[in-house]
Amino acid sequence: MAVVYRRLLADRPFAAGVGSVALSAVALGMIPLSLILSSGESLVAGAFAAGVFGLANAVGVPIQGALMARIPARWVVGTSTGVSCVFMLVVAAAPGSVAQPVFLAGAGVSFPALAAALRASIPRLFSEPEERSGAYALLSVAFQAGLAVGPVAASLLATSATRRLSFVIVAAVIAAAGFLLAFSTDRTGPLIRSRSRSSLPLAGVATFGRLLAIGGLVSMATGSLTVIVPAVAYAVGRQGLAGPVLAALALGEAVGALVFGARPVLGSRRAQLITALALTAIGYAALSLVTDQLALVAVLVFIAGALSSPVTILLSAALDDVVPQRMIASAYGLIVVAAVGGAALGTSWAGLIVGSSAGAAGAAIVATIGVAVAAALAVPRFKSRTKSQ
């Protein structure tokens, strides 16, 4: 396993890209909590501000991906990084301003889509299936690890003497991430221009829609854990362990991605996807049976993370067969948006279910059904694009 990743990271542009994605994810993880913690007693205002940034970012990622199909990625990344940093510095300079939502929307829509840029470059950097699988795994781990570190960094800044500089530090992280990728993209852009068809036919749109739905449903189940775990911890009187148990999810995702990415590519992606989804559904079903035992919940949360992370890798890999290369960045951006939106939606409905008589077990059952539906969507064959597309 180490040999595969050592070979991948020996590619300097790719290694720089992985580092830049991790840094950008740290910034993404810092911003919502920093906004909430800086709002004082007005948590609603902080949550609203975080929502504005998140929605704007969801709009900006596919837009930047589409631009990368026409403009070299380094220019898109460099420009968006500079614009986002300026907006974030304005937020830092004018805390509580009535125009803050506008500044946050500008920072969100221009936040550099580094994961999409790196994902689009992988098919050109690596030709072997095993290398690509490992590259997709490293991309997934870098992004998830950064998202996990971000809130921790934000909470540490909020309790330190540098709390007034939180958004300045966020802007510095964005700048470091964006310019690191922009200055290391000699081999990642521009995309090769072709006169062949660069849009999706109707069948391709339907297939891509299934990929989005599968990713969204799995992310909804993952998002529900942010409510299920604290509910179980509270019920057994161990509220302080909710954080470590949720950390087991991130650890499981990292371990699962690294192990899956380093293994030989055996069988079809579709068969692997169905298997991963079926096992993930079984994991959530088992979780619904042990919601009164926090230790077992922690084990199953780790397993759920380890089993679901290959789904993310396989969905990313499927884009190579479904979408024209010039659309990869935009398509991957939509996959990320579906995942983030699905997780947010999962957290919302899990909160409603946990607050009812169904409790945490009921939320786990609904998560199981969602993943089972995702598995059913994976059963029909994915229609691949033709070489002329």
What is the topology?
Elements lengths: L1 H8 L2 H26 L5 H26 L4 H21 L6 H10 L4 H12 L3 H30 L7 H17 L19 H34 L6 H21 L6 H19 L6 H29 L5 H27 L4 H20 L11
Helix pairs in contact: 2-3, 2-6, 2-7, 2-8, 3-5, 3-13, 4-5, 4-8, 6-7, 6-13, 7-10, 7-12, 9-10, 9-12, 9-13, 9-14, 10-12, 11-12, 11-14, 12-13, 13-14
| Pattern of helices and strands | HHHHHHHHHHHHHH
Q: Could you tell me the radius of gyration in angstroms?
A: 20 Å
Largest sheet: none
Provide mean pLDDT, rounded: 82
Strand proportion, as a percent range, falls in under 5%
Strands, count: 0
Structural class: mainly alpha
What share of the residues lie within helices?
Answer: over 70%
Q: What's the helix count?
A: 14
Oligomer: single chain
N- and C-termini, Cα separation: 34 Å
Shape: globular
pLDDT < 50 runs, ≥5 residues: 187-197
What does this protein look like?
This protein is mainly α. The protein has 14 helices and no strands. The chain has helices at 2-9, 12-37, 43-68, 73-93, 100-109, 114-125, 129-158, 166-182, 202-235, 242-262, 269-287, 294-322, 328-354, 359-378. Helix 3 runs parallel beside helix 5. Mean pLDDT is 82; it is low at 187-197.
